[in-house]
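Hey, can you fold this one?
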Amino acid sequence: MEKNKLVKNETNELLQLISFELNDEVFGIDIKAVQEIIRLMPITKVPNSPDFVDGMINIRGRVIPVINLRCRMGMMGKEHDNSTRIIVVELMGNTTGFIVDAVNEVLRIPVSITEAPPEIVAGVNSEYIKSVGKLEDRLLILIDLEKILTVNERLELQSCN
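Sure. Predicted structure:
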């Protein structure tokens, strides 16, 4: 009986996500990790930082590192425009900003329409991908924020503050 209850909960469980674009693909992250979404602002470069770190920003007195998610995921660079946003997230106790091409919407999707990612999805290394959501008109690639940075990279970013 306990097993049946678990299966029923899994099929009814909803994921609440922020959807965003990178390289004309739609991605999603868990809304619980998102602190805020802001327009692109001046970014201060940090010498000797990893290639995927664009620099640091000051948000209301808090200095946070900003990661170019396109670069981190091995995609070609793109000029920032009016749609470019920084998604500020809490990542394993640290606040980090991720630059994305555009933020689309908040989605609620059933866990039942997601599945494990194939080896390569949209040219992105699948190690960063938690699952793929099968929406009516498109696929939604769910990012595993905790795998975006290695332990050493997180420590390196902390030392930049």
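The chain has one domain: 10-160. Let me know if you want another pass with a different chain boundary.
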